[in-house]
Structures are given as C-alpha cells and as structure tokens.
Design a protein that fits this description.
The complex is a heterodimer. By secondary structure, chain A is α/β, with parallel strands linked by helices. Chain A has helices at 48-55, 78-88, 104-114, 119-132, 148-160, 178-194, 206-211, 227-232; strands at residues 4-15, 22-33, 37-41, 63-68, 71-72, 89-92, 166-170, 199-202, 214-219, 222-226. Classes of the chains: A alpha/beta, B alpha+beta. The structure holds adenosine-5'-diphosphate and magnesium ion.
Chain lengths: 236, 431
C-alpha cells in the first residue's frame, strides 16, 4: 500500500512567454501511493492542471523531477513519453475525450488497438468494462448521441480498460450537473476501491473532493495542505 | 535503472492493427462534414471529367484526322529508296517491285499495298498552248487505296485504266481542260531522257489542299513507268496497316521482313512522311496535358484549404489523441488516409462520369462543327460530319495518379502541424 506510483521533487513550472513570468508551480514535493485517490484542489490558477499534466507526461517541469511507476520522466523523449502515457496512464479531461466517429465500444477498443491488443480480446475487454460500469446499453452509440455524463463515464471506461497504473482526471465534472457528477464519482470510487486503480483528480468542485481519499490543496503553485498529513493528525 | 522496456508501440503487428483502425476512422472522418467532402471530391472528379472527356474528344478528332489524312494519299507507311524522303529524285527508286509487293502483301499486318511512281512534269492541254508544272503520280487503280484517287467531282470519274489521267480541279482550270480532253505530259525520265505521254482526262478531284488541287496529276502506273523509264521499280510502295498509331513499329517490322530482298530500302511511317501532321497531334496533346496540369494545381489548392479547415477544426481532438498516447505519425497517417479516401471518392466520381459522357456521346458521335478549334485543320481533308470520342484511358490513369499524389501532398501540408501540436494547449484552447 505504501508503494509510490508518483513522486515529485521540487517540481517548478514557469510560463515565461509573457512579459511577466507566471510561476505556475513553485517547487512541489508530492507523492501518490498505490490505490490512493488524490484530489488536487485549490482556486482557479493555483496550478492543479499544470501539476496533473506534468505527472501525466504531457508537460515538463522547468526544474525538479517527476517519476511515474518508478520511471524518471525527465529522461524520456517525446516518443517515450507518448508511449508511457499510452501504457501506464489513463486520462479523463473536461471535454473532448472521445473520438467522435467511433462508437462507445470502439472508443474503448481504440486505446487497446494502439497498444496492439488482438481484436477478440479487445472487444471482450471493452464490452466487459462497459458492462461493469453500467454502460453496456450505450456501447454502440457515438459520442454525439451520448449525454455529457455518459461521455465522461465512457471516457473513464476508456481510461481504465488497459489497467493503467494511474488515472488522471482534470475537472472531469466541470460540464456535468449534480446528479451526473454523482454518477461519475460513484464510478470513480468503484474503480478505485474495487479495481485498485490509483486516481489523481484536479478540480475545484467540492463534490469531487468529498469522494477522494486524500485532498491536496494548492495555492499559488505550492501545496498548502495535504490530506495525508491531515490523516496523521485526526484533529485537523 | 530505467525499466521502461515496454514493447515498442511501433512494432509491425501493432502498426498493422492501428492501420486497419485508421482506415475505418479516416473513412468516417471524411463524412463528418459531408458537404465539404462532396465539394472537394467533386472538384477532383470534375477535373478528371474535364480532362478525360475533352481529351477523349480530342483523341477521337485527332484519330479521325490522322485516319483521313493518311488514307488520302500517303498511307500508313511507305517503302522508299533511303534517299527519297530528303531528296525526291527520279533515280531514287526501289528495285524489284514485283517481289517487294508480293512480300509486303503477304505480311500479316499489311492490309493494302499500292506502288507509286512520282515525278515532276509539265502538264499541257492537247494543243500544247497552256502548260503548268505539276506532280505526276503513277498509280495502279486495281490496288490503289488513296481516297484522293477515288473521289471524282461530278462530271468525271476516277482513273480506271492506262491512257487516262485524273487531276486536281485548279490545275485543270489553269490549263483549261475538262474531263474528256486530251492532255500532254512532258518530263525528264530516269536516265535523263525526255519523258512524254498523252492521256485522256477522265475526272477531277478537289481535296481542299491547295498544293494538291493546283498541281497534282494521276496517271496509270504502267504509263508512268513507260514514260519515265522505270523497270520493275517504283518511287514508293504505300501500305496500310490496322492501327496507324502503331505505324512506327509496323514500319520497323516491315523493314526487317523485306531486308533479305533488297537492303537498299527504307520504310517510312506516316510520321516521317508527314511530320507536320504528327507535330499537330503532339501540339494538341501537349496543350491538353498543360490544361490537365493546370486543373490539378487548382484542385490541389482547393484540397489544401479543405484540409487546413479539417486540421484546424480538430485541434482539440488531435490534442486528445496525442495525450492518450497516439503517436503523431499515426495521427498524420490517419489524415493522409482521409486524403486518400477523398481522392479515391473524387476519382470514382470522375472516372464514372467521364465513362458515361464518352460512351453516351459516342453513340451518336459529336458533330465536328461543334469544335471551331479543329475546323481549320479539318477543312484540309475529307472529314466525316461527326467524330466519335475515344475514351482516353492513358489520360484517365495519369489524372488518377496525379490527383492521388496531389491530394496526399495537399493533406500533408496542414497535417504537419500535428507534430508541433501541444496536447495541453490544444485541449485548453477548446475549454
Ligand atoms: N500555457 C500557459 N501559458 C501561460 N500561463 C499559463 C499557461 N498555462 C497555465 N498558465 C498559468 O499557470 C497558472 C496555473 O494554471 P493551471 O495549472 O491551469 O491552474 P488551475 O488548473 O489550478 O486552474 C495560471 O496562472 C495560468 O494562468
Ligand atoms: Mg485547471
């Protein structure tokens, strides 16, 4: 349980494109344990997405180091990062998660296609995950025929079907109402608790924070409070 | 310390599986904006239709022109003395005429054989008062195929036997003779002696070609041989074959076939006998090739703009695909496949429509009067009223190839940015 899936040391990210450099992350030290559900919280602009992207190998820190599943991301080329994302990380974004021309099943299958998994195994696993996540009735619909909540849940199915070491979700509920947000969160709790998927969400939605095991608060690019320390001192 | 020894995602079976997925995805992507796809593929198809149909008409017309132009006099090839083409002298004859014509007639690709004697002479009326220079051609009416020799103006008839003459209408008018009149021909024989003959004019022709109408007299080959001193020899043996487009190969083939008989001959395909006719064909075909290239360029610009829109609109989607670990090269290939589907759709439209156009218009033929362009050239020959288009399969193939390549290039131009695309920014931009 104490195995660390993610380790961040002194992660710094400065956006220097504008006249005034933006310090999105100021030396973040942070780790995610296997099976945990961390919720990065904090006001808009506090660096949640930036940290999530860096952990996911979508962005690189200016300083500091990040490792995922024991792999130092700093030493990887773009192609190797892409490979790592494909094999080890599942992503759920706020929107545009699914390929519009593929049905829900095909979307779930597609990621396995990229991994080179055979057709019959692909289909079986895609149908299996949709079934387990209660999405079997919408498998042959295309994203355009799905509600926002359904799309996000298919995105979760797509993200976890390959058994990633880490599921990253950035504002997954931003476009959802309360009821569908709850459905999505139940789903995430299900895969976290019953399937042992490690999750990091970034959101300012209090509902999401309520479901996560470990809230981590960011402010101005630094960790302000970490639920794991809060766990250690029950009075907090 | 690095344990990232994942099986490479670029391994062959993976690529193949992804390739299959991409083909389907590309096809569906193509129809996301059907109107745009129809317009673009329609542009590709229309360019093919324009080029193939216009060239089919052109080829039909040129074929007719060549058919008519070669049948009129020269034939598809001629056996001549090697010097005769550049320097047509009376003494430059092919010898062993009987044996040569026999061998030629026996060749499987030869359809007709016509010996000719050719020389210059002074043509006069019976009294010798009015004389004009002209080309005297001896023909054998029994085997002659030249259409010039077979179409007489009303009031006369073509040459049938020895002792007769058949001449251009202008020449007759200049000399002041008409069918039924006697005419006298004076020239220089093969050995330098005076050649003289008297024949009866039996008919006139009018080809529309001034040089022929003004200075061409046909007489019987035997009369010509007698007068000019030819013995089992001729200046040319004109032959016809099945397809005049094969004339060069045919001529080369004939040359080897008759080589054992007499080494001192040359077989001239019509292209050498009438270089200006071939020049016309080459010029016309070249012009239409330029037109085709021009259309390809125009359509390429349209396709580029279509794909600029497509790639731009799908920035977030491409960002997401990169984010989940799809290699930029694979996304690029998908866009290339969309281009391929696009061009194949256009090619199908273009080929089907041009086939329909060509075959429908070939049923009745197209009146030559519809093409002002050809009038000038056509007026020089006896041309049928309608022309039958011939499907331009070479052009269709070339257009297909050019369009496929052009569309791939056009799709690649905007798709290059997939490599530079930052997935985070691409996804953020759409929020
Ligand atoms: N591409 C960028 N260029 C410049 N500044 C950026 C860029 N991305 C993020 N930022 C800035 O970095 C800070 C952190 O952003 P972000 O990680 O998106 O915060 P959050 O997700 O918590 O709202 C913000 O001030 C934001 O404006
Ligand atoms: Mg954010």
């Amino acid at each position: 349980m104490s195995e660390e899936v993610v380790q961040c040391h002194g992660v710094t990210r400065v956006y220097a494109d504008d006249a005034v450099p933006v310090h999105a992350l100021r030396g973040v030290d942070f780790a995610v344990h296997k099976g945990d559900w961390v919720s990065l919280a904090g006001p808009s602009g506090s660096g949640k997405s930036t940290l999530l992207h860096i952990i996911g190998g979508l962005d690189r820190p200016n300083d500091g180091s990040v490792s995922v599943d024991g792999e130092d991301l700093g030493g990887l080329s773009e192609a190797q990062l892409s490979d790592l994302r494909l094999r080890k990380i599942g992503f759920v974004f706020q929107a545009y998660n699914l390929i519009p021309v593929l049905t829900a099943v095909e979307n779930v299958e597609f990621i396995m296609q990229l991994q080179g998994i055979g057709a019959s195994e692909r289909r079986e696993r895609a149908l299996g995950i949709l079934d387990r996540l209660g999405l079997d009735d919408i498998g042959d619909r295309r994203p355009g025929e799905l509600s926002g909540g359904q799309q996000q849940r298919v995105a979760v199915a797509r993200a976890v079907v390959t058994d990633p070491v880490l599921l990253l979700a950035d504002e997954p509920s931003a476009n959802l109402d309360t009821a569908t947000t709850k459905e999505l969160l139940e789903l995430l709790r299900n895969i976290n608790e019953n399937h042992g998927v490690t999750i990091v969400t970034a959101t300012h939605d209090p509902m999401v924070m309520g479901y996560a095991k470990r809230p981590v608060n960011l402010r101005d690019g630094a960790i302000e409070s970490d639920g794991s320390t809060a766990d250690a001192s029950p009075d907090a | 310390m690095s344990e990232l020894t994942l099986p490479s995602v670029a391994s062959t079976p993976v690529r193949r599986a992804v390739g299959r997925a991409l083909i389907t995805m590309a096809w569906r992507n193509l129809w996301r904006v059907p109107r745009r796809t129809w317009l673009t593929a329609g542009g590709v198809g229309f360019a093919i239709l324009l080029v193939v149909f216009s060239r089919s008409i052109q080829i039909g017309a040129l074929d007719t022109m060549l058919e008519v132009g070669t049948a009129q006099l020269t034939g598809h090839a001629q056996v001549q003395h090697p010097d005769y083409l550049d320097d047509p002298r009376m003494r430059s004859t092919v010898a062993g005429l009987a044996a040569l014509t026999g061998t030629l007639a026996g060749h499987p690709d030869v359809q007709a054989v016509a010996p000719r004697g050719m020389g210059f002479g002074l043509v006069s009326d019976g009294s010798g008062e009015r004389s004009f220079g002209g080309q005297i051609t001896g023909i054998d009416p029994a085997v002659e195929f030249a259409t010039l020799a077979s179409q007489a103006l009303p009031g006369g008839r073509p040459l049938e036997r020895a002792g007769e003459g058949f001449m251009g209408s202008k020449l007759a008018r200049n000399i002041g003779v008409a069918p039924g009149d006697d005419i006298i021909v004076l020239g220089t024989g093969k050995e330098g002696s005076v050649a003289a003959m008297a024949v009866t004019l039996v008919g006139l022709f009018e080809s529309g070609i001034p040089d022929l109408d003004r200075g061409f007299l046909m007489v019987h080959f035997d009369d010509f041989a007698d007068a000019f001193g030819l013995e089992d020899e001729a200046h040319a043996i004109a032959v016809l074959t099945g397809d005049l487009r094969d004339a060069r190969a045919f001529a080369a083939d004939l040359a080897t076939a008759i080589l054992p008989l007499d080494g001192n001959v040359a077989v001239r395909p019509w292209q050498e006998l009438m270089p200006e006719l071939e020049q016309t064909v080459v010029g016309e075909i070249g012009g239409s090739a330029l037109f085709a290239l021009f259309l390809v360029v125009i359509v390429t610009f349209v396709v580029v703009s279509t794909f600029v829109m497509t790639v731009f609109e799908r920035t977030a989607e491409f960002g997401m695909l990169k984010a989940i670990g799809m290699a930029p090269g694979a996304i690029f290939r998908m866009v290339q496949l969309e281009g391929l589907w696009m061009s194949l759709t256009g090619v199908a439209l273009g080929l089907v429509s041009s086939l329909v156009f060509v075959y429908v218009s070939a049923i009745e033929g197209i009146p030559f009067s519809a093409f002002g362009d050809f009038d000038d050239m056509m007026a020089r020959f006896f041309v049928p009223d309608v022309m039958i288009p011939v499907f331009d399969s070479a052009g269709a193939l070339a257009m297909t190839a050019m369009m496929v390549v052009a569309v791939q290039a056009a799709a690649a131009i905007p798709a290059r940015r997939i490599w530079r695309l930052n997935p985070v920014e691409a996804l953020r931009a759409e929020e």
